[in-house]
Amino acid sequence: MSSTTATKVAVVQHNAGTDVEVNLSTLTTLSRQAAAEGAQLIAWAEAFAYLGRHEGKQEILEPLPAGGPILRRCQALAQELDCALLLGGFHEAIPDDPQRCFNTSVYLDQTGSIQALYRKIHLFDVNIVDGPQLQESRQTAAGDQTVITETSFGRLGLTICYDLRFPALYQSLTDQGAIAHSVPSAFTATTGDAHWHPLLRARAIENQSYIIAPAQHGQHSANRASYGHSVIIDPWGRVLAEIDDGDGYAIASVDPAEVRRVREQLPSLKNRQPFT
Predict the structure, then answer these.
(1) Catalytic residue chosen out of the listed positions 74, 101, 161, 270
(2) What 3-state class would DSSP assign to 230?
(3) Domain annotation covers residue 180
(4) CB neighbours (10 Å) of residue 114?
(5) Is 210 in contact with 204 (CB distance < 8 Å)?
(6) At residue 68, what are phi and psi to the nearest 5 degrees?
(7) Tens of pLDDT along 121-173?
(8) 274 part of a folded domain
């Protein structure tokens, strides 16, 4: 790991609906408060600008990196706050495919410049009895590239929500030098109650890395509710900061020295062996 510094990171939690202006106004207010408390990286949840039917989503799709009004507003906020913004799940237009979009995590530096784009690889196609029945792949195209970005604390691996269930992705990002992983999510209430904390802590422990997981919360529609519990976890698997429910934010320090300490004392990454 290169020489880097401890950085205050905030995870922002909100309940997105179909009103983009309301969603962005809520996020702006919370992000200003987090920045006033010293956050240098502020992370937003998946589907931060809109969560609703695909027909409405199609009306707000923006190409990347060119963007449109949503991206420009986020870039202006990063400049205003002089901090990095992780736009957890951006509805990205696909050229020549008006019926689908990418679910894209966008990392903006403090100048508002795009430093990284990660398109969600694993799409949420599930049919759980008495639970969520969703087919994300009907309207969303899958990405196929892992992405890391440089931050003030070191390399950050970008993932989104359902990716959390696929540990090989996190191993790959760690092998590329990531000391933290972002997991912006709109985890369903059903699956979140059973799996959110165990999976997040497992990814932190396995990779001896920080986990930065902003999440949606609450009821979005009659058939859709998110679990909440936005959280920051350290490389030992300890929860450093968490929001149980409701709109809000939580702040914790991501310290590369702590990653080095854990990896030196319990060298499980170095002890990995090939097998067949």
Answers:
(1) 161
(2) strand
(3) yes
(4) 18
(5) yes
(6) -160, -155
(7) 999 887 777 766 777 888 999 999 999 999 999 999 999 999 999 999 999 99
(8) no
Find out whether 102 and 89 touch, Cβ atoms under 8 Å.
Answer: no
Concerning whether 270 is annotated as a catalytic residue, the answer is: no
Domains held by the chain: number: 1
Assess whether 161 carries a catalytic annotation. yes
Does any domain span residue 275? no
The sign of the torsion formed by the CA atoms of 148, 150, 156, 161 equals negative
pTM, two decimal places? 0.96
From 180, 163, 166, 148, select the one nearest 259 (Cα to Cα): 180
* Residue of 57, 62, 101, 120 marked active site: 120
Intra-chain end-to-end CA distance of the chain, in Å:
30
- Catalytic residue, candidates 8, 46, 83, 101: 46
Q: What is the distance between the alpha carbons of residues 138 and 86, in angstroms, rounded to a whole number? A: 26
Residue with tokens 């890395």: 209
Catalytic site residue 74? no
- The C-alpha atoms of residue 213 and residue 29 are separated, in whole angstroms, by 19
